[in-house]
Amino acid sequence: MNILLISQVLNNNVILVEDGQDQQKIIWGRGIGFKAHAGNHYELQKTDRVFSAVPSDDEQWIGQFKELSEKIPREYFELTEKIIHLAQSQIDADFDEHLLIPLTDHIYFAVERVKMGLNLANPMLYDLKRFFSKEFAVGKQAQEMIQQLSGEPISDDEAGFITIHLVEHEIQNSKSSVDTFASFLEITTDVNNIIEAAFGRKFSDDSIAVNRLMTHLHYLILRSGSKHVTTTSPDDSALLEALKRGHPRAGNCLDQVVSYLAQKLDYKFTDSDRLYLLIHIVHITE
């Protein structure tokens, strides 16, 4: 990609181009928009930074990029793109360019708040660590990357806010019947509380078994609302009944969890779904 067709000049340093393969790109380079016009050709320079863009009919995204690129240094867009790639490599979800705008905006102004001595506490931090371990792990790595770029101390609270952005993006890109992070967190918290109440005790926040259950629940919520119908094998049904007989307390807890989830989600539970949930409950509690 060397010679590009300019679709739009966003400002003196940023242009929107067509790459000849029906893809749009954002090109950011010093002064490249000065005296440039739509329809002109542009030759990519070594110092230019290329960002993937969303489809041209998403005028809101283009407008937001134009607005933020006039306020926020290019380094923060580059940092956010690295964080998105990090999330793509560590979380089984589709993180695309739509995340670039809100996450860059959040990170830059979070740093500006820290510079002014305004540290924003995250009241959901405890639950974010427990229930969204993969996303929080990315948030922690992002926290270090932001500190390196800005030279400012970034707290775990900020890692939590980045976690929320990641989960919200997963929800928006799914067919889930749950459409807000608040509802997502409420369901996850309630399931945890049902299990703890059924067994009369709390479970370790660092438990691998708890993390596995929450990851399983996470993806179950994300696929709720899908019209895809899952089937159950006779072996799964037989194993479910055998496991419930061997672990009656866990079996009763399973029934409470499924009854609750059936009220909250547009999802038809199969015996296979129940089996995997029960296995997780047994691992946590016994």
TrEMBL record:
<protein>
    <submittedName>
        <fullName>Transcriptional antiterminator lict</fullName>
    </submittedName>
</protein>
<dbReference type="InterPro" id="IPR050661">
    <property type="entry name" value="BglG_antiterminators"/>
</dbReference>
<dbReference type="Pfam" id="PF03123">
    <property type="entry name" value="CAT_RBD"/>
</dbReference>
<feature type="domain" description="PRD">
    <location>
        <begin position="71"/>
        <end position="176"/>
    </location>
</feature>
<dbReference type="InterPro" id="IPR004341">
    <property type="entry name" value="CAT_RNA-bd_dom"/>
</dbReference>
<keyword id="KW-0677">Repeat</keyword>
<dbReference type="InterPro" id="IPR036650">
    <property type="entry name" value="CAT_RNA-bd_dom_sf"/>
</dbReference>
<dbReference type="GO" id="GO:0006355">
    <property type="term" value="P:regulation of DNA-templated transcription"/>
</dbReference>
<dbReference type="Pfam" id="PF00874">
    <property type="entry name" value="PRD"/>
</dbReference>
<dbReference type="InterPro" id="IPR011608">
    <property type="entry name" value="PRD"/>
</dbReference>
<dbReference type="GO" id="GO:0003723">
    <property type="term" value="F:RNA binding"/>
</dbReference>
<dbReference type="InterPro" id="IPR036634">
    <property type="entry name" value="PRD_sf"/>
</dbReference>
<feature type="domain" description="PRD">
    <location>
        <begin position="179"/>
        <end position="286"/>
    </location>
</feature>
